[in-house]
Design goal:
STM4215-like
Length: 203
């Protein structure tokens, strides 16, 4: 489920990517990009990365002990760069109604609008709609002639984990049998069954 939700978030953002009024250079799962050399990271911006941030301990649903609610958090990171300084990595520049330099605040806003209350039901997922969480600053710095800013926003959702039914174990005396099949072989036995009885067992 975790992988399916992350993929659904990325697919939803990727589908909207061409309609954004600015270019996103990289949109991908987070794989430690911010742990690389900053001069390499800056070249990939503007960027959006998605990662699983964690989940709380599942809580039982009802009294069956076979269904558990999982509350999970995903993080979306938004990065922008600008050679004119730190302020301009956050604030966009518009000329004639066109965004000529996009800032991290605008990317954060647009991605938030795309993800708010999404449940990806069309993808076959059964989750609670995404709800926004806290926003944190990951980077707001300058490197040589480039400045960069990266903000992360948490997104919360939940789903019900259902334990699979246990298969019947013929060696377990407590196993629940609902039917019995009896195969008859007459002698001399030619290896083929001569008759079969299928008996339903009442519970």
């Amino acid at each position: 489920m975790i992988a399916a939700i992350e993929d659904a978030i990325l697919a939803h953002l990727a589908a909207a990517r061409p309609s954004l009024p600015y270019k996103i250079v990289e949109m991908d799962s987070y794989a430690g990009q911010l742990d690389e050399q900053l001069d390499q990271v800056i070249r990939r911006m503007p960027a959006v990365w998605v990662a699983f941030a964690g989940a709380a301990r599942p809580k039982p649903v009802g009294t069956s002990k076979t269904r558990f609610r999982v509350d999970a958090t995903f993080a979306v990171m938004h990065g922008a760069r600008n050679p004119r300084g730190e302020k301009f990595t956050r604030h966009s520049l518009e000329v004639g109604g066109q965004i000529t330099e996009v800032g991290a605040y605008r990317i954060l806003q647009d991605v938030g609008a795309l993800l708010l209350r999404q449940d990806f039901a069309a993808s076959g997922l059964e989750i609670e709609p995404l709800s926004p969480g806290k926003i944190t600053t990951l980077y707001n710095t300058r490197l040589a002639n480039q400045a960069m800013a990266v903000f992360a926003q948490e997104w919360h959702t939940a789903w019900v984990l259902t334990l699979p039914a246990q298969p019947l174990d013929p060696l377990n005396p407590d196993a629940l049998w609902t039917a019995l099949g009896i195969h008859y072989h007459l002698t001399p036995d030619d290896g083929l069954e001569d008759a079969v009885d299928n008996i339903s067992l009442s519970v």
